[in-house]
Design goal:
- The chain is about 45% helix and about 10% strand.
- The N and C termini lie far apart (about 40 Å).
- The protein is of the alpha+beta class and about 60 residues long.
- The protein has a two-stranded antiparallel ribbon with strand order 1-2.
- It is built from 2 helices and 4 strands.
Length: about 60
Amino acid sequence: FSISGASVKQGAETSVYLASSSEVENITGKYFVNKKETPSSGLTYNKAIREQMWKTSAKLTGVDL
């Protein structure tokens, strides 16, 4: 099974690395691609969009704000 040319194993590598590597154990709030810290999309820095996503997520999951 493959998505965008990556195997399941390749797709899981960064998640497994972040969950198990002591190299990144004190790093939080960062975005990683292929086990490397990478800037996220410019949209993720837009405060209005972040707030709307938070509200929508809270509403869909039943979390009180």
